[in-house]
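Researcher: I'd like a structural prediction for the single chain below. Treat it as a standalone chain; there are no partners to consider.
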Amino acid sequence: MNKRFNFEDNIFIILMRLRMIRDIIILDPEPDLFLEKILDDIHFTDHLLRILLEYIQENDRLIARDELLNQLSKTEGQFSQLIRDFLGHDGNISVREIAPVSEKLLVLRNSSMERHNTLEELCHKAGIGPDNATVSFDEINELLKAL
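Model: Treating it as a single chain, here is the predicted structure.
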């Protein structure tokens, strides 16, 4: 993997993918056409979140690391919520009756919850509370320009 990448852009893309998956589920399309793609997207998103967590754990001297931890934690929470919503969905694309799919989604949800707990622990160690407003690097630069 490239040693330098834009963490914020990756988070943004993941959030857009989560929105797309959520919208597809809400629209309730034909499962024969979309279920496999939704599951692929969920697995891919899980993979991306795992990679980003590993990256942030390995790089404790990142600029604006606290903000990145906070963003990743919120994104992980949204991913976990998406899986919960999908498991509870009653429309055309319902996975309740498909035991192997439900079991895989439960494993992914548990994995997501573990990552979220890890991120919360990292945030706590860094002194970042869930409601603490963090000032971004760009905001600091703007404030310094005013001086």
